[in-house]
Every structure is written in C-alpha cells, then in structure tokens.
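User: Structure tokens for this complex, please. No commentary.
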Amino acid sequence: MAALEGLPTSLTLEIVTPEQSLVTDHVDEVQVPGSEGFFGVLPGHTPFLATLAVGQLWYRKGGQRFYLSVAGGFAEVLPDRVTILASIAERAEDIDVARAQRAKQRAEERLARPAQDVDFGRVQESLLRATVRLQVAALVGSHMGRTDANVAGGRVP
Ligand code: ATP
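Assistant:
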C-alpha cells in the first residue's frame, strides 16, 4: 500500500543513557517496556511521553530485530521519532552474561536467606534487571539477523 502523503514512513530512533549514546538509527518499528506495559510504535504514531520499566526493548529494521535491556527512564514518541532516555541500558551483544548470572544468584540468595538489613525492594529490582539481561542476551545469535515471518511477528519458534 502506498504511504499516505505527509505521513512518515520510518522512525528516527535515539537511545541514550547518562553514560553513552547506544543507538541512533532509522527504524521501522520499536517496542518499549513502559511502566504501564509494553507499547509498540510505528511511523505516524500520536505523540506521547512515557516512563520506562525494567524490560526488553526491541526495534526492527526491515525483517531484522535488535534487542536491548533497559531499566528506568523516559520515552518520547513523535510521529517520526522515538527518543529513549534510559537510566540504564545495554545492547544485547554487550551484556556480560556471567556478570548477570552472578547478580541473579546474589539476589536469589539474599531473598532465600534474608539478613536483617536486607532491602527487599532493591534485591527484587536487582533480580529483575539480571533476569531481563539474561533473557535479552539469549536473543543474540538466535533471532537477530533472521528475516523469517516468525521473528517479525514476535513468536519464538
Ligand atoms: P551488578 O551487581 O552486576 O553491578 P546491577 O544490576 O547492580 O548489576 P546496574 O546498577 O543495573 O548493575 O548497572 C550498573 C552499570 O553496569 C550500568 O552501566 C549497566 O549498564 C552495567 N551493567 C550491569 N550489569 C551488566 C551486565 N551483565 N552486562 C553489561 N553491563 C552491565
């Protein structure tokens, strides 16, 4: 179907953390872990602002998906642009799996044998960050780079 006149046909995606710029690219679709749930953005989306949860973010260029883990921050959506100001984020391929496994194990041990001064909220957040990192890291080399319909449709074969 031909693009409607005046409507953008792609999105400029910018993902930054306080430390670095992780992504600047032209993409076709973005899925973001918002505090109120995941939301998807296609070109021409209504403008809005959202806060970010801890979770997996992906963007698609053609049939190729790219994954990141994010933890907190803000998203600004405009019809032709998505800006992610993440408190913490890593690209899938940059995630140190052994480190995330250690963090997960530490958190699980703290939850299983709580010391008196354990801050449960912090431990649970740490466990969630580590779990999301491991899930995102596992997607490297499995779906990224593949162009089949299952990947574009979001189903894990
Ligand atoms: P850890 O206990 O291993 O430091 P954490 O969840 O406490 O994990 P964060 O506070 O979320 O770590 O992140 C601190 C910094 O370290 C951030 O810049 C984050 O991107 C980076 N980071 C944390 N864990 C990993 C990981 N497994 N791989 C790559 N970068 C990581």
